[in-house]
Specification:
The complex is a heterodimer of chains A (239) and B (245). With 239 residues, chain A is of the alpha/beta class. Chain A contains seven helices and ten strands. In chain A, the strands form two sheets. Chain A has a six-stranded mixed sheet with strand order 6-7-8-3-9-10, with helices on both faces. Chain A has a four-stranded antiparallel sheet with strand order 2-1-4-5, covered by helices on one side. In chain A, helix 2 packs across helix 3 and helix 3 packs across helix 4 (132-144). The longest helix of chain A is centred in the C-terminal third of the chain and has 16 residues, at 162-177. Chain A starts with 5 loop residues before the first strand and ends with a helix. Chain B is mostly helical. Chain B is globular, with a radius of gyration of 18 Å. Chain A binds chain B through residues 15-16, 51-56, 69, 71, 74-75, 77, 79, 81, 83-90, 94, 98-99, 101-104, 126, 142, and chain B through 4-5, 8-9, 11-12, 15-16, 19-20, 80-82, 84-91, 242-245.
């Protein structure tokens, strides 16, 4: 068993009046981990905790052996939000060059990041002129700068065509093969099969944790969507 | 704080402005046009009114323009998620703020150089003090505008709101800066308010340069404006949170 990259214990996050995460605990190991659950179940909040962008009420979040949000982690985590967090009025190459300077990595790795998301042909185009899928890949490229040890990707494949989605999942696996941990959230259950490991999440809690095969076997379901429904109904009966 | 990151921010902001030709043209041309308009309006009237109003206008341009530009651009950073992303990177809050101040200070220097050249060279504005000092005052005004713009962007959730801060924050300062009624002649309460508004000192500095030209006094006013700018930057830094609710 490899050492965990992320360890969350009894994490409580309250936003406004609502307890979004009412005491969640989980681990993330190297490899590609899928964080699956319906919209509004707390996936984004959990991811924001990992990168140190979220105020937390209580509990601990440890990333790569350090408390989440500590200065030493800021060059070691790549984070992609659901919003395309790049500058619309700059070209692809200018965006990457800027973030590379902030991170203190060289220009070569900026070019590498552009190539790995397949945007070489668009490197000198202004981001605002690109399609939605291309823009989200620019945002992803920024997260790849400096080969981070943990990639936190919030719904990176939403709205992309099937070919692109397949290419991106191949990229996530290549990154994971290089030794990094990749945590990918999605509310689309059919992406589950592409992960080494799954965390199924509902209403701020982890309701299942294991490989896609394990979860299907445990629930006797044909696919992860069925397994999810099975788990939800099972919980409902207990309560 | 890290000079590499500060310069990266400044360079990026300048690239964005350079790409936006319309904004760039407005930044550089509009002040020259307005100051010419002012001169033309007063041209046939006696009493050296252009010499009285011109310097105040030179103090206001960089302040107003940079206030607007900064409040909108930083609001965009906040709402697009780029600010959150930068704050998960090794970006110091001061790097971010000073990067902006540096970029817009530089733009203001160019803007003022043009406006001063037009005022002094073409329109015959009488400046008794050194002309370069006008530029210094303008840059400090611009940094003040940038700092206040950064600060108010924290309290706006849309660009529409951010623009509304201009009449709320800037117009009262224009009314009370001593341009329309000398500050000593105002009702006591208004004079007291005028004394704690930064633009009053910016206008004082410009008027001193054009009038009595006591350089010591000018630097005094510049120092006051700079203090306001530093205070606003510090408050602005407090509104940049790595962790948000």
């Amino acid at each position: 068993m490899m050492k965990n990259v992320v360890a969350v214990r009894d994490l409580v996050v309250v936003r406004g009046e609502r307890e979004v995460l009412p005491g969640i605990s989980l681990d993330v190991a190297p490899g590609v981990t899928g964080l699956l659950g319906p919209s509004g179940c707390g996936k984004t909040t959990l991811m924001r905790c990992l990168v140190g962008a979220q105020q937390v009420r209580s509990g601990t979040v440890e990333v790569l052996g350090e408390p989440a949000g500590s200065a030493a982690l800021r060059t070691r985590i790549g984070y992609v939000t659901q919003a395309v967090s790049v500058y619309d009025d700059l070209t692809v190459a200018e965006n990457l060059a800027f973030f590379a300077r902030v991170l203190g990595v060289d220009r070569a790795s900026a070019e590498e990041a552009i190539a790995s998301v397949g945007l070489d042909d668009h490197r000198d185009q202004v981001v605002a002129k690109l399609s939605g899928g291309q823009r989200s890949r620019v945002s992803l490229a920024v997260a790849l700068l400096g080969s981070p040890d943990l990639l936190v990707l919030d719904e990176p494949t939403v709205g992309l065509d099937p070919v692109l989605r397949r290419d991106l999942w191949e990229l996530f696996h290549r990154i994971a093969d290089g030794g990094a941990a990749v945590l990918v959230s999605s509310h689309v259950m059919d992406e589950a099969e592409r992960c080494h490991r799954l965390l199924l999440m509902r209403e701020g809690r982890i309701i299942a944790d294991g490989s896609p095969d394990e979860i299907r076997r445990r629930t006797g379901a044909a696919d992860i969507e069925q397994a999810f429904l099975h788990l939800v109904e099972e919980k409902g009966q207990v309560a | 704080m890290n000079p590499r990151i500060t310069l990266a921010v400044a360079g990026r902001v300048l690239t964005q402005v350079r790409r936006d030709h319309r904004t760039l043209a407005m930044l550089l041309v509009v002040p020259c046009v307005l100051i010419s308009l002012l001169w033309w309006m007063f041209d046939d009237l006696p009493g050296g009114l252009f010499d009285r109003f011109g310097p105040a206008l030179l103090a206001m341009f960089p302040f107003i323009v940079m206030f607007l530009v900064t409040s909108v651009t930083t609001l965009r950073e906040r709402s697009s998620g780029t600010l959150e992303r930068l704050l998960t990177m090794p970006m110091g809050k001061l790097d971010f703020l000073l990067g902006y101040a540096l970029a817009f200070g530089l733009l203001a220097a160019v803007q003022s150089a043009l406006a001063v050249a037009v005022s002094v060279g073409l329109l015959g504005l009488d400046v008794n003090g050194p002309v370069w000092l006008l530029g210094v005052v303008a840059v400090v005004d611009a940094v003040l505008g940038t700092a206040l713009g950064l600060l108010v962007s924290a309290f706006a959730t849309t660009e529409f709101q951010a623009v509304q801060f201009m009449p709320a924050f800037v117009l009262p300062q224009i009314l009370l800066c001593g341009l329309f009624v000398p500050r000593e002649a105002m009702p006591g309460v208004l004079e007291a308010i005028s004394n704690v508004l930064p633009l009053s000192y910016a206008v004082d500095a410009m008027q001193e340069l054009v009038g009595a030209a006591d350089e010591g006094a000018v630097w005094g006013y510049v120092a006051v404006v700079a203090c306001f700018a530093v205070a606003a930057l510090a408050l602005g830094a407090a509104t940049l949170r790595r962790r948000t609710p």
